[in-house]
Design goal:
OB fold (Dihydrolipoamide Acetyltransferase, E2P); 10 helices; 27% strand; binds guanosine-5'-triphosphate; binds zinc ion
Length: 369
Amino acid sequence: MDITTLGWNSFFKLEFDKFSDKDYLPARVIREEKGHYLLAYTDGEIAAEICGKLRYHITCLKEYPSVGDWVAMKPTCENTHSIIYHVLNRKSCFTRKAPISGGRTVREVNNQKTVLGGATEEQVIAANIDTVFIVLACDNDFNLHRLERYLLLTYNSGATPVILLNKIDLIDDAESFVKKIESVALGADIHAISALENTNLDLLNQYLSIGRTVGLFGSSGVGKSTIINQLLGYDRLLTKSVREVDSKGRHTTTWRELVLLENGGILIDTPGMRELQLWIDEDALSHQFSDIEELMTRCKFRNCTHNTEPGCAINSSIEDGTLDPDRYHNYLMLQSETGYLTKRRREKEIALMQRKYHSNQMKALNRKP
Ligand SMILES: Nc1nc2c(ncn2[C@@H]2O[C@H](COP(=O)(O)OP(=O)(O)OP(=O)(O)O)[C@@H](O)[C@H]2O)c(=O)[nH]1
Ligand SMILES: [Zn+2]
């Protein structure tokens, strides 16, 4: 197999060349489950585990290999499986907040659930994605606030978002949905499609040229699998046992998988992220809501709280209809969440540094005669 069809390019080659003195092979993670990996490389597919040294040096979840990662590996003598020695630096990285322990409460605002309390850690959902298809359906699931979250996470990941409005066969006025999306999309490409009736799916080929990786995100049921099956030209469900039926009798995607398309594109499919958590920084938020932050600079008073002050640009824009109050409130909510997360992340970093410091102290003490 020519690994350029797996997304191998000069960026990863440069990373891999750091290990040119070792006889490693480059491989891409196509599946991950509980520490067991499936890799694709020049000779096909091979199972893999990470080596003890790498495991020892890993300090957080984010450093483990994830679907989409390029790794430096070596097959065992019998060629039955392989050992991962390094995870190559990522070009882009899509993460979410993963609960790892503790008493958590779930806060629900605008139909979105946010986990508060407990220990959290950044977890990689998928790595090295060039383009993210954010899939929305124009049915009951249509939710602009959720779209804003996906956009925020995508911009934060380093990938480019493309918004797919699916199931347009169910409605007559796709244009009005597209208009609503445009109001929050900040210039991202938007395509109105019907996966079921194969309408406009040819427009997606421009993002799926040889070696380009596309990730699919969106709530359960928006049609991600249907889109993949249409692009593949056959039903993946029938060819691989990658799904199982959950307690409600629904089929849910249980493997995070990397799919190679005939025209050279690569698709990464993740389980429906119903309880999407934010793991972003304030920069990404500012980018997403730059218009609101620009407005704030136009308030009469520099310390305006945008409540009842005279000359408040936010309030006057809401009054004259140029700023959607819903969008403004979503901004405030996301802002309070990111502030919370940034604080938690800093606390964790400090704790980690302290732990490292103490362990070095202990080592130094033990070394003393
Ligand atoms: N009317 C209509 N239905 C669609 C369309 N695309 C998908 N569906 C239906 O929507 C339902 C869910 O589609 P899936 O492709 O399984 O959704 P998913 O996003 O993969 O869901 P998860 O695997 O749970 O994340 C199925 O019954 C599909 O037939 C469409 O364009 N139009
Ligand atoms: Zn103001």
